[in-house]
Amino acid sequence: MATTSGKPGIFAIRDVRSLISETAEEGQGLKKSVGVVQLTAMGVGAIIGTGIFVVIGKGAGIAGPAVILSFVLAAVACAFSALSYAELASSIPVSGSAYTYTYATLGEIVAWIIGWDLILEYGVSVAGIAVGWGGNLNAFLDAAFGYQLPDAIAKSPSEGGVFNLPAVFIVLAITLLLVRGVTESARANLVMVVIKLAVLIFFLVVAFANFGTGNFKPFAPDGVDGVTAAAAIIFFAYIGFDAVSTGSEEAKKPGRDLPIAILASLGICTLFYVLTAVGAIGIATPDQMKGSDAPLAAALDQGAGISWAAGILALGAVVAITSVVLVIFYGQTRIFFAMCRDGLMPRRLATVNQRYGTPARLTIGLGVLIAILAALVPLGTIVELVNIGTLFAFVLVNIGVIILRRTRPEMPRPYRVPWSPVLPIIGVLFALYLMSDLPWETWMRFGVWLVLGIVIYVLYGYRNSRLRTEPQSTPAWAKDPDSDKDPEENQP
């Protein structure tokens, strides 16, 4: 951080060199142990979950067979932001994702806002996905064994139960796995990704073996409006590739591996999504899928008449959602860790366990809080906050690329967004367009959360920030450990 004559203001910017150098501090540096395959699997693990197993039915109900185009449009909308994430992740290999990138480009107050936003987004998302995991577990038990857990231990109090035991179980199990180490977590996620891709391949084989073209007419009953409206919903089936960037600091070769992982995970998921949509329409009508909580299983059962496959699809959904919980929760711990290390949250929480190389204390604390939330609170419409939070982050990441190109033109960029600033600007416009379609209630809840965050920043974060408690001169450019092995990796 640059030397200043007075106390830095709320728009003070963290120097990229200082951010990188802090990753080598004793007791606060994360272990570099994740390669490109594990990072790509993290992206696929975060993206393929409830989206393809649930949201495809809602999209088909809106766009009809043209839901296939909706998947493509949503992927294009994500692609522009993915490019910006790839550039910043390779240039600033530090935990924190959009929070850290914003700190280096737009200033501390904006970084705090996006960090506070991401804490809500990831935390609510993990709790909501955990609740969905419990519902899919019950569906699998019913399909495979004709048994379901009692409502008393499978639902929240407002839904007629006492507490949601399956949701608590999966959150605490993932918490212990993340404490154990990022290498173990990445391996477990890789296994789950292989399983759920195998389930989707099974669906595609069965679907195309029973394929027909009759359900494709009329292709777009509501025209372009139907396609774009469905894309606004299906867009959220792609959310998750940004979680890859939270692993920047633990990547073995961030300059090379992060851009590959971000773009490859988005590409793999888009391919599977489009093929699955084509296969589903080939065996079932949109009406048969839109009313089901398990549209792919409904397509096989009602469309192709293969009822026994429902159990396999239910098992695939359970595995898919488990990997989503793992990766999203991992992302939240790394963002919170970065904020603590910067002093905006209590710095003692940023201590890395020397045995496991993970922020164990922080991870356990967040896991307990999320487990309580998942056990007792029906999330319902509050999950919409995940949507607006993600899109808000997309806006700032794209803007960050444009600003850094002007303010730090000499900074090493192993990956560069082509045709900047045109593509980042398109990414901003796509995100703002999708945000404009969200309900006003979501905007109000989001506003309340941000006001609460500003109060905490004023009372604690501003005073304890490392920008004010540890003024110092900017150190020399921190070298990536891998740069000695392959100098070209860190060249612009």
TrEMBL record:
Record's keyword terms, sorted: Membrane, Transmembrane, Transmembrane helix
Membrane-protein topology: Multi-pass membrane protein
Protein name: Amino acid permease
Ranges that cross the membrane: 36-56, 63-86, 98-115, 122-141, 161-179, 191-211, 223-241, 262-285, 305-331, 362-379, 385-405, 417-436, 442-462
Compartments (UniProt record): Membrane
Any GO MF annotation of the entry: amino acid transmembrane transporter activity
Chief subcellular location: membrane
Keyword ATP-binding among record annotations: no
Domain of life: Bacteria
GO cellular component terms attached to this protein's record: membrane
A matching Pfam family: AA_permease_2
Region: Disordered, residue numbers: 470-492
InterPro entries per the UniProt record, alphabetical: AA/rel_permease1
